[in-house]
TrEMBL record:
Its cofactor is pyridoxal 5'-phosphate. The keyword Transferase applies. InterPro entries: Aminotrans_3, Aminotrans_3_PPA_site, Class-III_PLP-dep_AT, PyrdxlP-dep_Trfase, PyrdxlP-dep_Trfase_major, PyrdxlP-dep_Trfase_small. Belongs to the class-III pyridoxal-phosphate-dependent aminotransferase family. This is Acetylornithine aminotransferase. It comes from Marinococcus luteus. GO terms for molecular function: identical protein binding; pyridoxal phosphate binding; transaminase activity. Keywords: Aminotransferase, Pyridoxal phosphate, Transferase.
Amino acid sequence: MNWLEKDQHYIMSTYQRLPIVVEKGEGNYLYDSEQNKYLDLFTGLAVNIVGHSHPYLLGKLKEQADQFLHISNMFINKPAVRLAERLIELSIPGKVFFANSGAEATEAAVKLVHKWGSSQETPKKGIAVLEKSFHGRTLGVIQLTRQPGIYQDFPAADYPVYEVEAENLEALEEVLKTNQPAAFLFEPILGSGGIQPVSPSFMEKAKALCEKYNVLFIVDEIQTGIGRTGTFFAYERADITPDVILFAKGIGGGLPLGGMIAGEHVQEVFHPGDHGTTFGPSPLSAAMGNAVLDVLYEQNELENGRERAEYLWSRLEDWKNESEGFVQEIRGLGMMIGVVLNADASFVKTLQERLLAKGFMFNITQQRIIRLLPPLTLERAEVDAFVETLAEEMNALKERSVQ
C-alpha cells in the first residue's frame, strides 16, 4: 500500500485529506514525498504563525529538550511560568490555565463558568454564543459550535446554550435578561463560520450588556489570536476588557498548546483538584510559546506581518475589482481572510485542486469560501505569485464552465 492507502486503512476518517504526503516544512513552504513545493496559505489551520521550521523556534526547542521533556504539574515549570507572565502582560491582569488545544481551553472555560455561576447570589447557568460559531468538537463544548452537521448526532453536556445572531444587540440583551446565562462566548472573527468579523461596536456594547446583567464576557481567540489579525489578540480593536480569553493554535509554534486567561475577579474560581491535565503545558510547548513571542516582538514579525497583510489585501482587492463581480466579497482582518465567490461548492473545490497542482495550498470553509490563514512571514513575491495564479485558474475554470 502507498501512504494514502495506509492512511485510509489505519486512521479513522475524521478529516477529508488533500492527497499530499508531506515530507518537510521549511519557511512558508511544505514539500511532499515527490519533492513538489507548496506555498502554505493555511498554516496547519492557523498554527504555524511564523512558518515552518523557523530556526529560532527550533533552537529554543532543542535548548529545552536538552533540559527535560516533561515534568509533573506538582513541580514548577519555568517555561510555563514565564509564558503565563508574558501572556498576562500582553492582555489582562489575571491568571493562566494551560491546556493542549483550543477545545481543551474551551472545556476549562465551561467548567469555570459553571462554578462561577453556581456561586452567585442568584445561581446562573448556561452560555450565550453567536450563530455559526465554532468552539470545538469535544462532548463538553460541541453544543457551543452552532453549525449543522457538527453537534446534532451527539449527546450534549447538561447546560443550556443560547444562540444569538451576530451584531444583534437586542437579541443578546433579551437572552441575557430573560435567561440569565452565566457567560457570553464569541469569536472576534467567526472562523469556520465563514470569516465573519464582529464589529468593535458590537463587542463594546455586548461587554456593557454583560456588565449590566452580571454575565462573564469570554473571547475565543483560538484562531484569531497570537498576532494573526494584526494585533496580539483580535479583541484589541475594541475598547473592552474581557473576563476570560481563550487561546491556542499559533502560540505553540507548531506544538500542541492552548489555554485560558482568567481575569482578576475569576482567577481564583478554580481550586486544586477542580481541573487539570497531565501534559498541560508541555515544557517543550511552553518553550516554543516563549520563542513565538520573541519572534513576534523582539524580531518585529508582528509589525512586519501587518505590512505584509496590507499588501496581500491590496492585491486581493485589485483582483476582486477586475473579476467583474465574480469575487463577491473579501472579508476578515490581517492574515485571516475569507474570499467569497459567486460560485457553487463544486467550483470552489475544483479551484482548490487546480491551485494545489500549481503549488498553492488554501482551505475552504462553509463549502464555498476560500479561507486564507497565511504566515506572518509571507513575502510580497509569494503574494504576487499566488494572486496571479488564482486569477488565471479562476478565469480558466469560468471559461470551461461556460463552454
